Amino acid sequence: MGKEQQMAHSIIEKLGGVSNIQTLMHCMTRIRVNLHDPSKADLAGLKDVDGVLGVVEDDTLQIIVGPGIVNRVTLAMSEETGMNIHSVEEETNPMDLEQMARMNKDAINKKNATPFKQFLRKIASIFIPLIPAIVASGLIAGITNVAIRMGADPESAFIQMLGLIGWGVFSYLAVFVGINTAKEFGGTPALGGAAGILIINPGLANITLFGDPLVAGRGGLIGVMLAAVFIAFLEKRIRKFVHPSIDIIVTPTLALLITGFATLFVLQPVGGFLSDLITKGLLNLIDIGGIFSGLILAGTFLPLVVTGLHQGLTPVHMELINTIGDDPLLPILAMGGAGQVGAAFAIYFKTKNQRLRKVIKGGLPVGMLGIGEPLIFGVTLPLGRPFLTACLGAAVGGAFQAFYEVATIAIGVSGIPLVFLVNPNEMVLYLVGLVIAYVFGFLFTWTFGFKESMAKDI
Description:
Blueprint: H1 3-14, E1 21-26, E2 30-35, H2 43-47, E3 54-57, E4 61-64, H3 69-81, H4 87-91, H5 94-107, H6 115-127, H7 131-149, H8 157-171, H9 173-184, H10 189-200, E5 208-209, E6 212-213, H11 220-239, H12 247-289, H13 291-299, H14 301-307, H15 314-324, H16 329-350, H17 354-368, H18 373-383, H19 385-403, H20 427-449
Antiparallel strand pairs: 1-2, 2-4, 3-4, 5-6
Helix pairs in contact: 1-3, 6-9, 7-8, 9-10, 9-11, 10-11, 10-12, 11-12, 12-13, 12-15, 13-16, 13-19, 16-17, 16-18, 16-19, 16-20, 17-18, 18-19, 19-20
């Protein structure tokens, strides 16, 4: 039995066996499962499985194993359980999804089930499946932009093709978001996609309401989510009054028709208002607060990553790009991972614990490439104080990014790869801020963040 297969088998045992696993999925670093009976899971034993870096109890049970390996272990679990990844979502109808949502809700730890956290979890669940496409597209788009700034002919066929590949996902992201939003709220995914099209359709420019032409894209992804939630809600309510023999015709037709007019008259304007409120509020916060805002935002970002709720910020980043053309928030938050890397380096050079050094050695490369969960759950969070010193190092880097107003042209993973997404004239500044976060994360951790006695239980 190979390493991934053994790890998968051990995880399944600690989850209470094959029969206790309800759904199976994964994101970039975490295996995500829903359990029929959460009480049957041995969470303490799960954390001790070789290769498991941490466990997060949420609306899904999240098992952190790191990038790359997560795909192989999830596949091995799929082969052992006979379950297709995402199979439950794909094979159930909207009513089953609604029932599943109620079952999952009962399993959530009540102390974490505040309305705000639940809201962020919903948003995160919409965007997590889109992350690979967003990251890949953003990186290609960023590299293309850098190549043009370095002298490449923007009209050449090769650069045109790179631009097509890189920006394609962002052009139609509203459709994907609509699909996932409808799915998350118990509706038909295709209708959610249709709701997304309502927001970005170029034909809106040909329609005049109250003396002003409509604007394609107004409201952005916030408007898309509002429309998709509305059509999911409407679909379920209409279905209750429609005879099953004509349900497939009447229900989606009425849902789309009503949602269409509701979007044009209400949801898109409301989405535009909320979008303006969020983007202008953040920009004012960064402009007025300056380095202090950067310090606070970067210094408090890692706790959000611990819960997995940081993915809920994706629509905020997209709205900033859609509204002002770039995103000054992402470089600030990216310093969270940089502070973590600096802290990990300090521990690596200071500790004599070989197991801890091995974990750090495995987590540092991906940490520098913008995937921070292995270092968070395998190193700094279990040790305690280094997690705080990593946040302090991040805060210094965030203050630097805010002071120089560094911004990205697209979204993607943080760390070193983000340099390709930064405005070309700010690339050096971003790298300097990254090094500053490394250095201060290292210094804070080396000076007062780590003692060898902390490593005895690792």
